[in-house]
Specification:
The chain has 142 residues and is mainly alpha-helical. It has helices at 8-37, 43-76, 81-132. The model has no long low-confidence stretch (mean pLDDT 90).
Length: 142
């Protein structure tokens, strides 16, 4: 039996999981960078570097994460795969924007707007292609 609406709890879980995985990817990169690429620097050096690197990591890792999670959402609800992908992306944009405002304020959001917009466009495309990849697949919810 098909559900009359997208799986909202699964979408919410995907939003938070995507945020956690992107943070984990950034932490893994910084751990590698500080131990293998540029060891022995001061804390301020690494904090400056992560401010530059984190948005780029978010784009690269975020594309893969969004593809996989949108595919997972699409498999859970074949009939609503595109709506699920769009709601997943929209939920992430809202969460990421709220976190950016809390951490950096509105000025920080405005300063980071170009890279954030690029990042969110890439994530939307990845979510679309992930959901689209479920065409012809059987729902895991059935």
């Amino acid at each position: 039996m098909t559900s009359p609406r997208p799986p909202f709890l699964r979408i919410l879980a995907a939003v938070f999981l995507a945020q956690v995985l992107i943070i984990a990817a950034t932490a893994a990169y910084m751990l590698s960078y500080s131990n293998l690429i540029a060891p022995g620097q001061g804390q301020a050096f690494y904090l400056d570097h992560v401010r530059v690197a984190a948005p780029l990591i978010s784009i690269v890792a975020g594309a893969a994460i969004f593809y996989v999670l949108a595919f997972w959402l699409g498999r859970a609800s074949i009939e609503h795969r595109m709506a699920s992908a769009l709601l997943f992306w929209l939920g992430f944009v809202l969460l990421a924007t709220a976190i950016t405002i809390i951490v950096d304020g509105l000025r920080g959001l405005a300063d980071a707007a170009p890279i954030l917009i690029a990042s969110h466009i890439v994530k939307l495309a990845a979510a679309f292609f992930g959901a689209r990849a479920t065409i012809g697949a059987h729902s895991i919810a059935s």
